[in-house]
Every structure is written in structure tokens, then in C-alpha cells.
Design goal:
The structure is a homodimer. Helix content of chain A is 39%, strand content 23%. The first copy, chain A, is of the alpha/beta class. In chain A, strand 6 and strand 7 form a beta hairpin. Bound molecules: 3-isopropylmalic acid (2 copies). One 3-isopropylmalic acid sits at the interface of chains B and A. Chains A, B: InterPro entries: IsoCit/isopropylmalate_DH_CS (IPR019818), IsoPropMal-DH-like_dom (IPR024084), Isopropylmalate_DH (IPR004429).
Chain lengths: 354, 354
């Protein structure tokens, strides 16, 4: 069980340190090796996904990632920006299936900006395609050409999906729905985009293999509305890379506690990259303020999906539930009457609860 | 002052009847002529934007639209679906600037699924580009070709913007911000899409002409989150056609009363198409249940933007505020303690308040 550990930038190293401590406490035969991804890799090697990291990641069974990015690297040329590292490792490892749960922990119900009756008990799984769509489609670029008789800059990208890409992500989504509430909502914009008309057609075809799952379709604009209006109508949602980027962030913010939400990005053989849903929060980096729980829960997802260690995964998840019940809170989820702790102390509490 | 009136489908005819009554009560020299758009046009002529309507719309100074679409026409070939009519008239009339206010009326604060302190006083204007982007970009389609050694269907679309398209919509947005809170947030996905990198570059350039407006940039995934977390941070938002479709619907749902929200789609000379932000609600069509206020407020926007009749626009808007204060509510915004009325009675109340 080989893990490539990539702390990344900003709060990445701090939150990763706690997740690693938790993993080490589990008495599993885990091998961990650290590498560089994102801004720290640019600083050290000039490129956000250096060869040494590529080798490490390819040889490992799973990758555990903190977070990448920060204003320091925002003005670099495109190929050197930290997010290129993230896009690069996703594509390189074929991590086409991004699973993002949006769960509202009962203890944190107040953190949501939505009314309690709208979000209490929220438990959605968003399945986002991660290696196709307009993110990687060719041709793309910016060039100067003649438009309406004058020389102008023009920028363009290509949204594109082949049948096999749509089919495999839909299978992942149907299988996830089978293990949960048996409801799958596929999101597209078929009334405007041919690319997503194909998506809808294939969803209908794949559905025939999963008669126990109820498939519905929703247009992306309506989905963005329904997530605000009545998010509990959803069980599993599946969509393309671009719409998934937007909707999964919207859905996680419904909980008000994005510092609690893990994610998994899987290939066809359950090799995966696991990372918190939140960003690198450069403003609080190095201050022992960040919430390590999303990273710890990402480690639990890794135990479940890649290593098939369901018992260990549940042990970690239960420990997290226990520290919440005990009242431990980092600043992002703190409210009066609870116990404010730092990153390190939150890790201590999880270890104690294990 | 020539108005092309297009009631459309579903609840369209009912809500339009009330808006027309209000306009007629204003003692302005308005000429109104009715035409067909959407499903009703398909039924009558086989096409959703027939030539007679094209002529009418081109010759008019403004178009007032109810709503188009319904399940009845969803299985027709693409070119015959009602939304083709909508896309067709937007493109044909060059209506590139879509203005969508998301306003929470104090009387309707409870209708929101968000906590009152998060949304009370909400007043955002979303400026969406409406005739470019992936909506109209070429090439596009679905075809079968060889992928990884097998014959597969592939679907694709093209996101594309030329400099002049970005520049003109940003000008509209900056000018709108100047008349409001002087804050403009431009939304893109520049870290992934070259097309929107150009958008951001041009936004920076145009900003030089509006030193009194504070320009910020936000990535679309973050914008979807921030609208849920703290929507009152925004004054005017500007973005492309696709992101604008998603974000403007999300923003209007924050108010919980999409039945109250008008919209304007303008060309370069303030000719415009005005329509409610909600859809055609086929489930309640013909039952005197629909809320006509968004259409009435769209008529007010028409008086303001196309006909420069600020006083008349305010008269209508004040009448709407008055009926809300008097407690009149259609079913969509009803709560105990208020007075439930039908479409027609709501129109009567507005007329009385005028
Ligand atoms: C950093 C960025 C490229 C990335 C994406 O858009 O996929 C991020 O927003 C995410 O969702 O993981
Ligand atoms: C009906 C559809 C084509 C349209 C769009 O996507 O523009 C609608 O959602 C809107 O926002 O007016």
C-alpha cells in the first residue's frame, strides 16, 4: 500500500501533517513518500508537476494531496501555474472520476447560510468527469485575426466528449447511486449544446443496465437553482468537467463547512488521488489555523476506495464525528459554546478519538 | 413607441395579458402588435421563430415576451424546439446584453431558502453576454468517428469570443455599475480556459476608462460558492453567455421569488427584448395561478431602457411595491397572513395601485 504524499502550497503542509499522523496511527502497512506539486514544485524545479513527482505518483497506489496554488504564482506563464500541476496529474494518471460528497454534519448545521430546514441532513454525492470536456479539448488558444474587417484578438476552447468517456463516468455514477439512495440526476445543457445532447443520449443507454436506479435529467441552469432551493431532492448527481466544477463548489458551500469535505479522483482501477475540497488558503497558511479534517477524511476515502480497508476508513470517520461531538472546532467552523482549537490540536483530538 | 408582444407558451399568455393591461393604463402612445414565438409558433407554422414574427420584431422598438417551451415540444428535432426561437430572436436582433437583477423585496424575505441575515436587502445585477460564447460558436455537432481504434459518437461545441464582443458587454457592465454601487465583479475561468483569459485581459483594459468603478475578478466556481455564502458582497457581476446562464439562475433563486424578477436583453441602440426570468410553467398554465409581476416589471424595464420613460417605469415599479405592501400574493410567494390571489386579481391590484 504505497502512498504518494503531496502537501502542496499554503495550508497544505500543515493539514497534511495531521492526516499523515492519523494514517500512521492505524497500524496498516502503509508506505508513504513525499513529493512536490504546485507552487512549491515551481519554486524548486521550475515546473508544477516535475518528473520526480510523476514517477512517484505513477508508482504509488494512491496520491494524497493537500492543496495547491497562491497569489505568488498567479502571474507566471500558464504552463508554470500551480493548477497546471493539478490538471497534469489528473490527466497523467487517468483520474476521470471525481467524487465529491456534500454532507452537512448535524453539529455544524448552523454554519450553513441556508435555513436549517432546507439543509439539515444534506447528503449529496457529486460525480464529476475530470479528464475531458473543455478542460482538455483541442483546439484552444488566443490569436489575432480579422473579425468584421479589423484585426482582433479571439479566444476559444473546445468542449468535447467521446462516447467512451461519457459511458465510463456514468457507470461510476450509477454504481455509486446503487450503493446509496438509488437516485441519479444527470446534468447537461442539451437544449443548447450538442456535446451534452450526446451526454444525455448515452445516459439513457447506460441506464438500461441499472434498472434499480432512477435516472433523471436536469439542465445545468436549473440544477444551479435547485441546489439553492431544495438541495435534499438530490442523491447522486453526475455531470461533465466544467459544469461539475461549478456545481460541486456550489453544493459544498451549501454546507457552510467546506473545511470538512473530502474528495476522491479515481482511475479505472481504483487508483486515486485524494484531496480536500477546499483550497490552499494562503492568507492563513503557517498559522496553525487551518481545518485538517477534510484532509483526514480524504485519507479515509483513500482507505475505502483504493485500499479496500472499509473498517479503517470508518474508524477514521467515526473519530472525526467524535471530535465534532466533543465540541472541537477550528476557526472556520467555530461558534460560541464550542471549543476553538488549532490545526495541530484538532489532529491531536482525532488521534485521541481513534 | 412600437412594441412587439410575444405571449409565448404555458403561462405566457396569462401573464402577458396583465402586463398589457398595465401598459395600456399608462397613457403613453404605445403601439402593440402580437406575434408567435416558441411552441405556439411551431404548432401554427412549423418553426419557433417564423418570418412574420421576425418582421414584427425587427420593425418594433422593443419586444415584450412571456415565456416559451414545454414538454409537448421537447421531443421535436433540435431546430424546431421552442428555445431555438428564443436563441434565434436574440441573435437576429443582436441582443448581446442581458441584464438580470436579483432583488429581494423586503416583504418576501421569508421566501428565500437562505437565512434572512444573508439575503436581506439583496440587490445584485447580473450582466450576461447573450449572443456569443459556446451558445453560438462553430464548429459544433455530433458525429461518429474513430476513437482509440473503435467507431464512436463524439459531441463537441466551441466556446469563442472576439475582442469586440467582450469589450462591448464590459462597457455595458461598467456603465451599469457607475449608476449603482460602483463595484463590478467579472467572472471567468482564466486558470483553465484561454477564451476567458482573453476576457480577463480585456476587462482590465476596459477598466481604464472607468476609474470610478472598482473591478474585481472571480473564478466561476468560486462565484457559484460566494453567491451562496455571502451574496451581498456583489453589486454588478458580468460574465459570458454560458457562465451567465448558470450564475444568473442561481442568483435569482437566492431570492426565493423568481416570479418577481424581470430581465432585459439589449442591442447596441437600446432596442430590447424584455421577459420575466422564470419559465413557462406548463404545469400551472391556464389556471389563473401564475405570478404576473415579473412580466409587469419587465414592461417597466422596457419603459426605462428602450423608451426612456423613467417616470412611467417608476410608476409601475411603485405600484408593484404597493400591492406587495398591501399583502397581495400569488401562490408562488404566498405565506400565511397574506392574501392569496390569482393572476388576474394580481393584475387588478396593480392597476388599482397605479
Ligand atoms: C484549480 C482548478 C484548475 C481546479 C478545477 O477547475 O478543476 C479546481 O477548481 C478544482 O475544482 O479542483
Ligand atoms: C431556454 C434556454 C435556451 C435559455 C438559455 O440557456 O439562454 C434560458 O435558460 C435562459 O437563460 O434564457
Amino acid at each position: 500500500m504505497k502512498i504518494c504524499v503531496l502537501p502542496g502550497d499554503g495550508i497544505g503542509p500543515e493539514i497534511m501533517a495531521e492526516a499523515v499522523r492519523v494514517l500512521k496511527a492505524l497500524d496498516l502497512k502503509l508506505e508513504m513518500e513525499e513529493g512536490l506539486l504546485g507552487g512549491c514544485a515551481v519554486d524548486a524545479t521550475g515546473t508544477p508537476y516535475p518528473e520526480a513527482t510523476q514517477k512517484l505518483a505513477r508508482e504509488a497506489d494512491a496520491v494524497l494531496l493537500g492543496a495547491v496554488g497562491g497569489p505568488k504564482w498567479d502571474t507566471l506563464p500558464r504552463e508554470q501555474r500551480p493548477e497546471r500541476g493539478l490538471l497534469g496529474i489528473r490527466k497523467d494518471l487517468g483520474l476521470f472520476a471525481n467524487l465529491r460528497p456534500a454532507i452537512l454534519y448535524p453539529e455544524l448545521a448552523n454554519a450553513s447560510s441556508l435555513k436549517p430546514e432546507i439543509v439539515a441532513g444534506l447528503d449529496i454525492l457529486i460525480v464529476r468527469e475530470l479528464t475531458g470536456d473543455i478542460y482538455f479539448g483541442q483546439p484552444r488558444g488566443i490569436e489575432t485575426r480579422e473579425v468584421n474587417g479589423t484585426q482582433q484578438r479571439v479566444g476559444w476552447n473546445t468542449m468535447i466528449y467521446a462516447e467512451y468517456e461519457i459511458r465510463r463516468i456514468l457507470k461510476v455514477a450509477f454504481e455509486a447511486a446503487q450503493k446509496r439512495g438509488k437516485k441519479l440526476c444527470s446534468v447537461d445543457k442539451m437544449n443548447v449544446l450538442e456535446c451534452t445532447q450526446l451526454w444525455r443520449d448515452i445516459a439513457e443507454e447506460v441506464a438500461k443496465d441499472y434498472p434499480d436506479v432512477e435516472l433523471t435529467h436536469m439542465l445545468v441552469d436549473n440544477a444551479a437553482m435547485q441546489l439553492v432551493r431544495a438541495p435534499k431532492q438530490f442523491d447522486v448527481m453526475v455531470t461533465g468537467n466544467m459544469f461539475g466544477d461549478i456545481l460541486s463548489d456550489e453544493a459544498s458551500m451549501l454546507t457552510g463547512s467546506i473545511g470538512m469535505l473530502p474528495s476522491a479522483s479515481l482511475d479505472a482501477n481504483n487508483k486515486g488521488l485524494y484531496e480536500p475540497s477546499h483550497g490552499s488558503a494562503p492568507d492563513i497558511a503557517g498559522k496553525n489555523l487551518a481545518n485538517p479534517l477534510a484532509t483526514i477524511l480524504s485519507a479515509a476515502m483513500m482507505l475505502r476506495y483504493t485500499f479496500n480497508q472499509e473498517a479503517a476508513a470508518q474508524r477514521v470517520e467515526n473519530a472525526v464525528k467524535k471530535v465534532l461531538a466533543q465540541g472541537y472546532r477550528t476557526g472556520d467552523i467555530y461558534e460560541p459554546g464550542t471549543r476553538k482549537v488549532g490545526t495541530r490540536e484538532m489532529g491531536d483530538a482525532v488521534l485521541a478519538a481513534l
